[in-house]
Amino acid sequence: MGYKVKGIVDWVGTVDWELRTFHGEELSTHRGSSYNAYLIRDEKTVLIDTSWTPFAEEFVENLKKEIDLKKIDYIICLHSEIDHSGALPLLMKEIPDTPIYCTANGARFIKHQFHQDWNFVTVKTGDKLPIGSQEIMFIEAPMLHWPDTMFCYLTGEKILFSSDAFGQHYATHPAFNDLVDECELYQEAIKYYANIVSPFGAMVERKINEILDLNLPIEMICPAHGVIWRDNPTQIVETYLKWAKNYAENQITIVYGTMWDATKIMAEAIAQGIAEEDPSITLKIYNIGVSDKNDVITEIFKSKAVLVGSSTFYNGMLSEVAGLLEEVKNLKLGRGKKAAAFGAYGWSGESVKLVSEALKAAGYELVNDGLRELWKPDEKVLENCINFGKNFLKSI
Ligand code: FEO
Fold first, then answer.
1. Which of these CATH numbers, 3.60.15.10, 3.40.50.970, 3.30.1060.10, 3.40.50.720, describes 3-243?
2. In sequence order, what are the residues at sequence separation of 6 or more whose Cβ sits closer than 8 angstroms to the Cβ of residue 87?
3. Which of 16, 42, 73, 83 is catalytic?
C-alpha cells in the first residue's frame, strides 16, 4: 500500500519481493526490487511513473484506492522502459486524455512500445509545470541510463525524482534509506551502478555537476527503484561522482573458467604470489562458471586490476569466460585499469591470446602477454604462477 513520502507526495508504486532476475535473465536481483511511482497532490494532481507490466492490474487497483483516477491531471513519464511504463496501457484505458509529460525520445519510445498515440507533452530541461502551491521543473538526463531519461524537481518539497539514477534493486517497504541495513543498501547501489550505469560515467559526472550548478536545495531523492534517500540524501550523489571517475579500490579480482582444475590451480597460485607480494591488498577469486555473473562484475568494477583465466576449449576460450568478457566490454569496465590473462591448455592453447584480446577490447591496459601453461601444473609451473602474480602486482 501507498505511504507518505513528504508533504504532498505519496509513494504509490509496487514492491517486487520475488524478483530474482531483471532485464530478462540478464541481471541477478537477489533482494528483489521495487517500481517506484509517486503521487503529488497540489491544486493539480500528478502521477510520476507507473509499474512493470505484470503488476499493471495491481498498480491501477491500488492507485484507485488512493485517488479517483479522473482526478489525475498529469502523468509524468521520466523513463519509458517497461518497468516504469508497463501499467500505462491499463491506466490510459481509464483516463485516455490525460497528458503524459516526457522527453521527445520518451514519446517516441512509448509509441514504439505500446503503439498508442496518447496525449504526449514533450518537455526539455528548464521547462516548468505549475501545479498550484508548488512547481515541477524538468531536467533531461539522457543516457542515465536511456536516451529518453529525465529527472524532475518538486520545488516546495525540494525533492529530486531521479528515475533509475541513484536506484537499487532492493525490495523494502516503506523504503527510506534510514530504515534499511546500510551494508545491504550500498551493496545493491554499487551493483546497480556497475551493471547498469557504469558505461555512462562521463555523462553521470556532467549531469550531476549541471544539477549542482542549479543550486537546487535537495531534501530528498526519490529514485525509480529501491530506497528513497531521506537521511543525508546527497550522500548518493557524492558516491556517484566517485564511482563515475574510473573508480578503483585497492583490490584485484581474479576470474577464471576451468575444465579439469588446471586453470583453477593456476589462479590460486597467482593469487598466492600477489598476497605474498602485498598482504594488504584485497583479493577476490571467482570461478565464473559457478558464480553469479553480476556479483562478479560488481567486484571487477571495484578492482584496480583484473586477471582473467580460461582453459583452452578446442580453439577458443570457455563460453562462460567469453560471456563475462563481452559484458565487461559493454559496460566499459576496463577504462583506466590494468589486466592480464592466464590459462592452461592441452593441445593448441589459444585461450590466453583470445582472453588478452578481449580484455584489450574492453579497455584494459595489458601489462604482459599472459601466462600459458601446458596440462596440469607441476611444482615448476606453480612457481611460475606465483612469480607471475608477484610481477603482475609490481606492474600495476
Ligand atoms: Fe528501471 Fe531503465 O528502467
1. 3.60.15.10
2. 50, 51, 52, 53, 55, 56, 59, 60
3. 83
Q: Is 145 a catalytic residue?
A: yes
Q: How far is the CA of 52 from the centre of ligand 1 (A)?
A: 10
Select from 3.40.50.360, 3.40.50.2300, 3.50.50.60, 3.20.20.70 the CATH code of 249-395: 3.40.50.360
How many A from CA of 255 to the centre of ligand 1?
Answer: 29
Q: Which residues contact 141 (CB under 8 A, 6 or more apart)?
A: 149, 150, 151, 162, 163, 165, 207
- DSSP for residue 250: E
Cβ-in-10-Å burial (0-12, 13-18, 19+) of 328 comes to buried
pLDDT tens by residue, 272-329: 999 999 999 999 999 999 999 999 999 999 999 999 999 999 999 999 999 999 999 9
Evaluate whether 371 touches 266 at the Cβ level (below 8 Å).
Answer: yes
The residue whose CA has the least distance to atom 1 of ligand 1 is 164
Kindly state the helix (H) or strand (E) to which residue 302 belongs, with its residue range.
Answer: helix 293-302
- Whether 164 is in the pocket of ligand 1, judged by its Cβ within 6 Å, is yes
Domain parsing of the chain, residue ranges: 3-243, 249-395
Strand 3-6 to strand 9-11: parallel, antiparallel, or no bridges (unpaired)? antiparallel
Place of cell 497532490: 41
Picking from 63, 66, 130, the residue whose alpha carbon sits closest to that of residue 92 is 63
The residue annotated as part of the active site, out of 49, 145, 153, 364, is 145
Q: Structure pTM?
A: 0.97
